[in-house]
Amino acid sequence: MSSRLSSEQVKAEASALGFFACGVAKAGPVSATHADAFSRWIAAGGHAGMDYMARNADKRLNPCLLMPGAKSMVSVALNYAPAVRMPEGRLQFAAYALGKDYHDIVKSRLHTLASRIGIANYRAFCDTAPVLERYWAVQAGLGWIGRNHQLVVPHAGSMFFLGELLLDAEFDSYDSPVAPRCGSCHACLDACPTGALCHDGSFCSGKCLSYLTIEHRGDIPPEFAAKMGDTVYGCDRCQDACPHNRFATPTDEPLLQPSPELLSMARADWPRLTVEQYRRLFKGSAVKRAKYEGLMRNIDCAIKS
Questions:
Q1: 8 Å CB contact between 110 and 157
Q2: Which long-range contacts (CB under 8 A, 24 or more apart) does 223-227 make?
Q3: For the purposes of burial, counting CB atoms within 10 Å of the CB of 96, is it exposed (0-12), middle (13-18) or buried (19 or more)?
Q4: How many angstroms separate the CA atoms of 284 and 80, rounded?
Q5: How would you class 290 by CB atoms within 10 Å of its CB: exposed for 0-12, middle for 13-18, buried for 19 or more?
Q6: Which residues are catalytic?
């Protein structure tokens, strides 16, 4: 493809599809600094039981290996800041999991975005391939990676799903990275109940309640189970503490709203949840990542804590 794509057009189409932000970066190997940091994190076991993070490291550090001839990376962000949360005193789910599965929502819109800008040869990603999504969001000018290791979008916060289009086309202009704006704030570190976020900038997945309640198989270590509180799937404490999320606008996307049935679940209902109820309640939901057994383990921990 000889002609260059319009950066302005792809951003306009992304906005029309409901994406909060969109940017474009040149595809290529990630920076040596970032590659070294990632490799050290893996070597130190920071990824805990997420073995998939250590696989395909060459592709994770160079997305061009995922698609021959790749030249550009389009990064998008879809807002999921909740308009409605679980009522106070009920068992809590991370905000991103209250609605339908974000993988399906974002990827479907990425395919539509590719069609609207006239692209046939591309790959679409949403947490579904060895891609350093936050790194590319920074390169595409969407925001910066905060001390909570989440992408923070200026004047909007960190509650965003990220997605990418890897293309074999070039754009007429590319975006520049956003400088970090956390300053001396460490509210997220103070809010982390298990010390997963460290003052030296490192992150220990094995201590993170989000990892422990979703990815981890087997019993949750008692010292961390005691810190769960009402959380049974994921954890938003570092995000809730982030002052940038004061500027978040609650999403009005229907697919991301919790169902009336989920909102009606009383604390006493959860320990009696059957497999059939689980399947109905979380059909098309990211919560199924933890599986029925994992969710019931989490519920048991939360009820006892």
A1: no
A2: 224/194, 225/301, 225/304, 225/305, 226/305, 227/193, 227/194, 227/305
A3: buried
A4: 16
A5: buried
A6: 127
- Pairing assessment for the beta strands 122-125 and 160-167 based on DSSP bridges: antiparallel
Least Cα distance to 161 among 105, 89, 216, 119 occurs for: 105
pLDDT tens, position by position, for the chain (305 residues)? 448 999 999 999 999 999 999 999 999 999 999 999 999 999 999 999 999 999 999 999 999 999 999 999 999 999 999 999 999 999 999 999 999 999 999 999 999 999 999 999 999 999 989 999 999 999 999 999 999 999 999 999 999 999 999 999 999 999 999 999 999 999 999 999 999 999 899 999 999 999 999 999 999 999 999 999 999 999 999 999 999 999 999 999 999 999 999 999 999 999 999 999 999 999 999 999 999 999 999 999 999 87
Helix axes 102-116, 7-16, angle to 10 degrees: 140
Task: Give CA angle at 208 (292, 262), nearest 5°.
Answer: 40
How many Å apart are CA 251 and CA 159, to the nearest integer?
10
Taking the C-alpha atoms of residue 22 and residue 164, their distance in angstroms, rounded to an integer, is 9
Q: What's the whole-model pTM score?
A: 0.96
What is the rounded CA–CA span in Å between residue 94 and residue 78?
16
> Residue 121, Cβ neighbours under 10 Å: how many?
14
Q: Which residue type occupies 32? A: A
Contact indicator for 203, 210 with CB cutoff of 8 Å: no
